[in-house]
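Interim report, section 4.2 (structural modelling).
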Amino acid sequence: MSRPVDQQVNGTGREPLILVAASGLARETAEAVRAAGRHHLLGFVDDNPERWGTDIDGLPVLGGLEVVTRRPSAQVVLCPGPGQARRRLALRLAEAGVTEERYATVVHPSASVAGSSELGPGCILLAGVVLTACVRLGRHVVVMPNAVLTHDDVVDQYATLCASVSLAGAVRVGEGAYLGAGALVREGVTIGPWSTLGMGAVTLRDVPGHQVWVGSPARFLRPAALAPAHH
Ligand SMILES: CC(C)(COP(=O)(O)OP(=O)(O)OC[C@H]1O[C@@H](n2cnc3c(N)ncnc32)[C@H](O)[C@@H]1OP(=O)(O)O)[C@@H](O)C(=O)NCCC(=O)NCCS
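Predicted structure of the assembly:
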């Protein structure tokens, strides 16, 4: 078995972890990982060679994405802020043979996650997040500080909920949707895939996919510019 190599190196018995993309979110994720104390942080990997060998917040940038395949005993979490970039990386890593079991789920210890909730692989929940009851998060969902998700909310893969987002009950957030800081969503409302809610949007009705809505009450602003190709 090759798995214990990194554990021998770190000597702690904690799971080694690589953060993919040396982004602001990755630095925040590193802090959540340190606070939770369940993983041993190996460092970041990043596509930008200028960052290789540098240190960020005391952690090394180990190299490019190939480090993930060179270190099969390490767990991985995808840290770009935009869901679309997380999706691209997940597809590249899947092509390189990286399986779902490699993805860690990072939960800051101050988050309150109901036992009836389900978190997909690669989710990141920062400080103060609350999932009240039967909340389901898909793969690689990011939930930023103090967001509150209530009963029966379903958030699809690659979605991003910024700080202090608040979802009433039975809200559905589609794949890759981006909910800006402080956005509020009324009960039972659906936010379509790859749509964006602006900061503070008070969202009272369903938002179709691939659109940007802002304001109170939230209204259509423009089509979403960065939606990935349909697949
Ligand atoms: C919604 C958003 C994506 C729009 O960005 P944009 O397309 O660059 O839009 P602009 O800044 O050019 O603004 C276009 C119009 O929308 C308005 N607008 C933009 N964001 C708004 C918001 N959150 N609420 C209300 N109106 C907003 C602007 O005032 C402007 O109105 P005008 O045409 O009457 O002057 C962006 O403003 C936003 O809210 N992003 C979320 C940021 C966030 O939550 N960051 C947290 C990171 S953790």
